[in-house]
Design a protein that fits this description.
TATA-Binding Protein; elongated; 34% helix; disordered C terminus
């Protein structure tokens, strides 16, 4: 039986935009946005190795996480990492309200709600180094 965890978030969330962003910067063979709204990646955590799929719940403001059975023993720290990866603890309305006063960012915020206030984090030192080097 596969585990499934529901991770709530505060809307709006531009899920397709997040998946496209991560897919464009994906580490080949490690992660992929599959073009159908599902983000998949392999992961090693606390000596456990496996894979996970993340996608939006059909109803409600939540992402569903389906880890492989090998990751079930580390489900709690795994969900913390997924929440951090997709910045699910952000308050996008408060962030958007703050950015709306900026002459440059204000118009962008109103055009792309949910995207500007979510900052996908890096989930590995490898990706961090690669993103930093590409600046």
């Amino acid at each position: 039986m596969t585990a499934r965890v529901s991770l709530p978030y505060r809307p709006p969330l531009d899920w397709p935009g997040l998946v496209r962003y991560l897919d464009a910067r994906a580490t080949p063979g490690v992660e992929v946005g599959d073009g159908h709204g599902v983000y998949r990646r392999s992961i090693r955590l606390q000596g456990h190795q496996g894979y996970l799929a993340v996608y939006p719940a059909r109803s409600g403001d939540a992402l569903l996480v389906e880890p492989s059975d090998t990751l079930v023993p580390v489900l709690a720290p795994l969900t913390v990492r997924v929440r951090r990866l997709f910045d699910l603890d952000a308050d996008p309305c408060a962030i958007a309200a703050h950015l709306a006063d900026d002459a440059v960012l204000g118009p962008l915020v109103s055009r792309r709600p949910g995207l500007q206030s979510r900052a996908p984090s890096t989930d590995s030192s490898l990706r961090s180094a690669r993103c930093w080097a590409s600046r």
